[in-house]
Amino acid sequence: MAYYRTAQFADIAEALCEHGEIEPVRMVFIEPEDRRSEYWFNPQYEQFLLQEIIPAVESHYGKTEQKGLWGASLGGVVSAWLAFRNPQLFQVVGTQSACLTLEPGGDDSYTAPEWLTQQYAGAERLPLRFYCETGQIEWLLAPNRRFAAMLQDKGYPHAYLERPSGHNWMTWRQGLAPGLRYLFPKARQGGKSV
């Protein structure tokens, strides 16, 4: 819920919508109980999202044409992982300082191999669009650069941005508006947003 409370993600999206800068978006914020266990390539978390959260939201508010995932740090890696496993459901992914040094079953987020980057690199290109950013003074800079380079090499539509800051909510808040503009652009006259 830090995206909602600290970063004011919903307020930023609403302002962009009101100014005609992005398509309307519906946001669902999930409060983790134990983010290390929930976000660490956890199939139970995946099933919770797919079988409980999404059906409940769609039952109450209706279905949307496009679904996306967005997260920072551990939330960034779980967002990219969930999209990798469910490309038929998700189309866009926003990651901020994604902790790409994780691997299933591992416990060292500083030196573990970049497992998820390797999974994407070894698979056919999926129908996903990415907005990725990271701070230039954090330990995840190099892994995020390599993930962005892999996206480029595989031909994924993506935007990658580095900020002269670190692993914190001030940095991530600054990236919300640019990320929303990229992932949910306002449809042009005679065209359709991607």
TrEMBL record:
InterPro entries: AB_hydrolase_fold, Esterase-like, Mycobacterial_A85_antigen. Gene3D superfamilies: alpha/beta hydrolase. It comes from the Bacteria. PANTHER family: ENTEROCHELIN ESTERASE-RELATED (PTHR48098), IRON(III) ENTEROBACTIN ESTERASE (PTHR48098:SF3). This is Putative esterase.
